[in-house]
Design brief:
200 residues; mainly alpha; 82% helix
């Protein structure tokens, strides 16, 4: 029971603190409301479950026995986050265009895009590997409660971020505010990647 409570605490902290998933949901809800952010939330949760299943089926053992491989995966994911963050910053810094078709910075979107994004997100890897390390055995029954927690806790936390994004939506309609928000979000993504890189 103590182990389960500790695991709940770990997942809550990992899911509620700012990170790539939260920023994607915040941005989606800022543009389309909480309902518009639901495909992103679904993709993040399903992607987390998929990553957990991959680790369950043996990839976790391979990574544990090959630390350099784990470091390379973390490095690749962190560099991808840096690229996303720099793209957002660059899009926010560009001069305002009179054209309505100006290309906006893109983040992973849609359910399928965000399922795949979980395999590039170092924070997701860290969360899954840390959670699996708390389990004493390898039986499926040990993973079922963990899978339930990986659905409930991130969904609740991401809904909170979506509500914040929907609340900010009225300000995000202004181009200068939206561009400033993109710059801040881009900088936060780069900072997240930096923190993850220092932990490799």
């Amino acid at each position: 029971m103590d182990r389960l409570l500790a695991l709940c605490g770990l997942l809550c902290i990992a899911a509620i603190t700012p990170g790539p998933n939260n920023l994607v949901v915040l941005r989606a809800a800022g543009r389309a409301g909480v309902r518009g952010a639901m495909p992103a939330i679904l993709g993040i949760v399903l992607g987390g479950l998929s990553l957990l299943a991959v680790m369950m089926l043996g990839a976790g053992t391979v990574l544990a026995s090959h630390p350099p491989l784990r470091q390379w995966i973390g490095l690749g994911g962190s560099l991808y986050l840096v690229w996303l963050g720099m793209s957002l910053c660059a899009g926010g810094i560009k001069p305002l265009s009179t054209s309505t078709t100006a290309r906006e910075p893109t983040l992973p979107a849609g359910t399928l895009g965000l399922i795949g994004f979980q395999f590039l997100n170092p924070k997701s890897w860290v969360m899954v590997l840390t959670a699996l390390a708390t389990l004493p055995g390898n039986a499926v029954r040990d993973y079922l409660p963990l899978a339930g927690l990986f659905v409930l806790i991130p969904t609740f936390c991401l809904l909170l971020w979506a509500a914040l994004g929907a609340w900010l939506a009225q300000w995000l309609l202004r181009p200068t505010v939206r561009r400033s928000t993109d710059i801040v979000m881009g900088a936060l993504l780069v900072a997240c990647a930096g923190l993850l890189l220092t932990g490799l």
